[in-house]
Design brief:
about 350 residues, alpha+beta, six-stranded antiparallel beta sheet, elongated
Length: about 350
């Protein structure tokens, strides 16, 4: 009987569960775990929200670049365009095509030369991107979220120099407010102590388009080394970019190479942050070149160089010494005497 009572008391003692001290110990352990885990979880959530908002910023930048590319097909934009976001929606008629939710407030600005700047906020984070920046800046502590100040790009006025090729003078159209006529000669400092000679192609809306006086480096280049004309002037484009990347004084711009045939032979080629491009067929025709062999192309424009168009024979089109436009029918990948003349665009 005594043994049974002892065993019963032992079992009752086991059934009592945790003591108060043991329970407090468990609570303390759980509290410690919570103190460690909660901040980690909150940081994960915060990082995810931050990443999502940064993706929103890049989406808006991409939308701004696509807007500019689309406007180029309609003649380009004549002045900077600002898109304002308020309470998660675009204000007014200026709107970008964006997938997903918009930030609470902000601005996106697209310049006439294709640069995109933005400043957006969701209340907790401000994201900015400057006109010449390649990456965004994310700020978690900020007083205001405003567009970065635009840096003043070099202009024809700041880059034109007097040279022996220009009669040791600078064309008066740059200072007297008159329009610079096609064929006007300028010496331009494309990089420190590096001067190239250009002819004016056009002077419209305070933007002067110019072409070098001759083929760059006097080299020849294929229209498309792949031999597939449907891919467009790939080799010529790559060559012109390689030769002008060092022109640090020339503002960068975005440009779409659009085949001028209908229907198109090659699809549009969008190039971003370039210094120079090829002459278009429309520009050549505006300057007086002909497609009928009447030899009316201005003498300053002819030096055996490619333009960005193709002809009906699917070969690259060029300007010849014979002073007219024609297609190069001998196989564009095997061009042995056609070079490129970089075309630049500068504000006046």
């Amino acid at each position: 009987m005594f043994k049974i009572r002892k065993r019963s008391e032992k079992m009752n003692k086991q059934r009592r569960g945790f003591t108060l001290i043991e329970l407090l110990a468990v609570i303390v352990i759980l509290a410690i775990i919570a103190l460690i885990a909660v901040p980690v979880i909150m940081n994960i959530i915060s990082d995810a929200r931050k990443k999502a908002f940064e993706n929103t910023a890049y989406g808006l930048i991409s939308a701004g670049e696509m807007y500019y590319a689309g406007e180029l097909l309609n003649g380009g934009i004549k002045e900077d365009v600002e898109f304002i976001i308020s309470n998660g929606e675009f204000e007014g008629t200026n709107k970008l095509e964006v997938n997903g939710a918009l930030p609470t407030n902000g601005k996106v600005k697209v310049t006439t030369d294709g640069k995109v700047a933005l400043a957006i906020t969701n209340g907790a984070i401000c994201i900015k991107k400057g006109y010449d920046a390649s990456k965004i800046e994310t700020l978690e502590e900020f007083e205001s979220c405003e567009l970065p100040t635009a840096t003043q790009a070099n202009t024809l006025t700041t880059l034109a120099v007097a040279s022996e090729y220009t009669g040791n003078a600078i064309a008066s159209c740059l200072t007297d407010g008159s329009e610079c006529a096609p064929g006007t000669l300028f010496a331009i400092e494309v990089a420190p102590d590096v001067v190239e000679i250009f002819y004016v192609v056009s002077d419209k809306n305070n933007k002067v388009t110019l072409i070098t006086s001759g083929n760059i480096d006097n080299e020849t280049v294929a229209w498309n080394a792949s031999g597939v004309n449907a891919e467009g002037p790939l080799t010529a484009i790559a060559f012109i970019e390689e030769k002008t990347n060092s022109w640090v004084n020339i503002p960068e711009f975005n440009y779409t190479y659009a085949d001028e045939n209908d229907p198109k032979v090659y699809q549009d080629i969008l190039k971003t942050n370039i210094k120079a491009r090829l002459l278009t067929r429309a520009e050549a025709l505006d300057l007086g070149c002909s497609l009928d062999g009447s030899y009316t192309c201005p003498s300053w424009l002819s030096s055996n160089h490619w333009i960005s168009a193709v002809d009906v024979e699917l070969s690259g089109q060029a300007i010849y010494d014979a002073k007219y436009l024609d297609g190069y029918l001998g196989g564009s990948a095997d061009a042995s005497y056609l070079g490129v003349r970089p075309v630049i665009e500068l504000s006046k």
